[in-house]
Amino acid sequence: MYRFSKKTLVAAAIVAMGGAGTAAYAARYFENDVLAIANTKIPLVQAIATAEQHANGKAIRAEFDQGLYDVEVVSGGNVFDVRVDADKGTVISSAKDTGDREDDEHDDDDRGRRHGS
């Protein structure tokens, strides 16, 4: 199962809509992240390695958001959300992921159909 970030879905919608106005919006929407990532001292690959080592597992998803890398790591049947500072390369926080929000939304939809709602 693939997960898509909000920015990926927005980009797909922009491509689907087409037009110069939407292309200009896309450029502005991604410009800040592109500049921020270009100015980080720690590359994504290093942040993933740091998160994997911290949680003693394998990364399944990673994204950049406001100066931090958010990496999901599977370890021993659990999923951990590990945040890595993009300038220092240090782990900022690590927490066991207690539920997949996307799956929870689908579970709610399924329950509603099963119960006739």
From TrEMBL:
Boundaries of every PepSY domain copy: 41-93
Pfam families: PepSY (PF03413)
Annotated region (Disordered), positions in chain: 91-117
Protein's UniProt keywords contain Signal: yes
Residues in the signal sequence: 1-26
Record keywords, A-Z: Signal
Coiled-coil ranges per UniProt: none
UniProt name for this protein: PepSY domain-containing protein
Lineage: Bacteria, Pseudomonadati, Pseudomonadota, Betaproteobacteria, Burkholderiales
